[in-house]
Write a structure and sequence with these properties.
With 230 residues, the protein is of the alpha/beta class. The protein is built from four helices and five strands.
Length: 230
């Protein structure tokens, strides 16, 4: 049997050069433009979501981070029952994209939580006229009952839900991002989308304030006051 080596043929050498050049190009792009290259997950953050899915949602194996949220309606012009769909949409915005949900307890007093977050709804916010909402700290979040928002291509259903989800985003370390109307973190629009970087940052923040792990893949129903007592 005669063995013929083809390694030294010109076409093989050309193919090797092409592969090497392509590999070097990837390395150069990664060094010059690191934001354009997908990086491996930080080993210190094994629960960071996978952001390669079209809808931006984490994998089913990633935990849902649950955060206590006390919803204060004592000054609101709406009843607690009126807020059911609004509160559900807040959780939909965060759970469907980032695997974060809020365990909500609706109250009609002003006593804040020691953990988690507190949010107040009211007809008008004190201070700047026409202000839709603001975040000062985790226990001082205020939202107008009916914010006035600009259109977005894929709008949220309830303006109060969108604004509340936006202000909670500040509590999860996110800043304003004004490059498209569909962004949750854009000011004064109906947009509710998060990008991959925001999802990763929000989950890292949520991991630090989350309730103890439980085998839940969805949010609990908001706890509303007893109508007979209110």
């Amino acid at each position: 049997m005669i063995s013929v080596s083809t390694y030294g043929r010109p076409q093989d050498r050309l193919q090797t050069v092409r592969k090497t050049t392509a590999l070097l190009s990837v390395v150069v792009v990664a060094l010059l433009f690191p934001e354009t290259v997908s990086t491996a997950q930080d080993p210190d953050l094994p629960q960071q979501p996978v952001t390669s899915r079209n809808d931006g949602s984490p994998r089913s194996s990633d935990p849902v981070y649950r955060i206590s949220l006390r919803v204060h309606l004592g000054e609101s012009s709406r009843t607690p029952q009126d807020f059911k769909d609004i509160l559900d949409e807040i959780n939909h915005i965060w759970l469907s994209q980032a695997g974060i949900c809020f365990e909500m307890h609706v109250v009609q007093d002003d006593e804040p939580l020691e953990q988690g977050m507190d949010i107040w709804f009211m007809p008008e916010l004190p201070g700047v006229p026409g202000l839709n909402g603001y975040y000062r700290n985790d226990h001082d979040i205020q939202v107008r009952d009916t914010p006035i928002l600009k259109p977005a291509e894929h709008p949220a259903r309830h303006p109060a839900a969108r604004t509340a989800a936006h202000e909670c985003g500040h509590g999860l370390s996110l800043s304003h991002r004004q490059d498209a109307d569909d962004n949750l973190m854009r000011s004064k629009t109906y947009g509710w989308r998060l990008n991959d970087q925001e999802i990763g940052a929000a989950r890292r923040a949520a991991a630090k304030m989350a309730l103890p792990d439980a085998p839940l893949r969805e949010c609990a129903e908001p706890v509303l006051p007893d109508p007979a007592r209110t």
